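Quick start: read one record
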Amino acid sequence: MPRLVRLAFAAALFLAAPVAAVADQGELPIKADDGTVIANHRVPAALESHIEKLPGAVIVGNPLGKVTLAEFYDLNCPYCRRVSADIDVLIRANPELRVVLVPFPVLGIPSIQGARVELAVARLASPQKFYEFHRALYAGRGVIDGQRAFAAAKTIGLDLAQVEKIANEDSLVDVMKAHLRAGDAAGIQATPGLVIKGVAIVGHPGPKSLARIVANAQRCDAVICGAAR
């Protein structure tokens, strides 16, 4: 059984994570499924392009799709688990959706351990296999840490010795810090954080609202059709 990824570097990264500020009240009237306006704000187009080029980010769904949705997530965030399932439904239903998965480990050492394994898998596996691994991570209950991530990597047939070697590389600290900086630049103050068509959405709006946002992006190139830009 592979050992847990090194705690020293994980702890250093955790301490370097940005402190969350109070969430915004919603620049656009994007409503969650419960009818409340969910926190959101505009982000520069250049930042959107930067996010999908982050080292360790993985594009799933249709890589040539017309609608891009970036998701910043922590493996131990319960709302990230929910949004992952809802995004999976959308990927299966919409051949034009491309999703940029950005590990964003801000909830402690287990999340950082899991993210290290994720980044190793991203380097070793195809995007399709990575996505299979990503969904397998959420299949069980409880805390997702290095050991849980190793177990999920095994289900897609990866050599765990290779996964362990990469997961323990010092360079992954810089990769995770790059993700944290990008999330901070996008104003992602909580997880999940979604970025689509020039708007960052902080939190999970719910499956109906998320489906509507993606449909609007495909139909009118904006999260709300008819809204002033």
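Strands lie at 40-42, 58-61, 67-73, 97-103, 193-196, 199-202.
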